Amino acid sequence: MKVFYDEDSLLHNPPYEILDGHLVHYYESPSRPQTIKHELENAPSFTILPTNKALDVLKHARQVHTGDYLQYLETAYAAWVADGGDKTAVMPERFHIRSCFRAHRLQTRGAWGAIARAGFYCFDLSCPITADTHKSALASVRTALSAAEALSASSPPYSPKSGIFAHCRPPGHHAGTALCGGYCFLNNASIAARFLQDINPSTDTGTAQKLPIAILDIDYHHGNGTQEIFYEDPSVLYVSLHAQNDYPYYTGSKSETGAGAGLSYTYNHPLPRGTADDGYIAELQRALDEIRTSAPAYVLVSLGVDTYIDDPISDFKLTRAGYTRIGQAIAQLNRPTLFVMEGGYHIETIGKNVRAVLEGFELAT
Ligand code: OKP
Ligand code: ZN
Known about the structure:
Belongs to the histone deacetylase family. Its cofactor is Zn(2+). The chain is an alpha/beta fold. The protein has helices at residues 31-41, 57-61, 67-82, 114-120, 133-154, 188-199, 224-230, 277-294, 320-331, 347-363; strands spanning 2-5, 16-19, 22-25, 47-50, 162-166, 213-217, 236-243, 266-271, 298-303, 336-341. The strands form 2 sheets. Strands 4-1-5-10-9-6-7-8 form an 8-stranded parallel beta sheet, with helices on both faces. It is globular and about 60 Å long.
């Protein structure tokens, strides 16, 4: 399997975050991608490829995020330091609490300083913006786009099973139209979905209709950002399995099913704490049935392995064997599939667990 990876992903390295009220070392650390890369390098079935530097990453990011949010991410650190902020990182102090939904519809006041902006474009305390954050966030998008480009070149829409891994870091599924949070700055999977639609205009009906894409989110946490981005869009089906009543807390209930033209194009599968392999895979089969019914041209998998039994910030009980079965089950969709890396914080096993999913998929018959 082809794996796309960009070394700039390692640059973002905030020293701390606030987790459960404690100042702790940053869980979403560069050792995560280093470990995954090391594991896949030493496995004969993977080829690690550099990203395509010729891609216009910002142009594609603009299909998902607002111009003012993208400009904020680019300028936030310098503006913060110029304002006398701590040189470690931009850290919000107070949140614009109505910004959790469609922040871009609200008016930004021109007079807002760096600290006010920090709380307007962010929803939690896990996203310090360092001098290198913007560079890594763009590298992560470039990784998703490079992988999407390779997938579409080798497998046209609706082709049978083939898979590529976008080894993205930082992750993306919590990032909304104009919000960072949950270690996420830019929504890599969403930007890749739009990219696949843009390079493959649907010819089915002869109209300018968008190609149908499904995003299956199997990270432990609900992908509130991805859900928000496509909530009213019937061309991108969003299906998520995640822990009920855990972070990010306010989204991911079964009753959220989309709105407007996007009604019934969002499906949430909240699962109880302690969910193990069998319970998880039974629910995954229901999620896969929803995806099958929608007959997508491409499947994107937001892949988190923080569902693992030993994950330090999560509460599911999946095992290595469970990850192989998950990969096998996804393969049964029989579609070109882009795996996009999201969470997973047990450093010792993260590489092996990612490998198990991908090999489960690749070797499935
Ligand atoms: C990102 B991804 C829980 C605090 C959680 C942020 C977690 C972000 C997870 N008490 N802090 O979905 O893996
Ligand atoms: Zn997660």
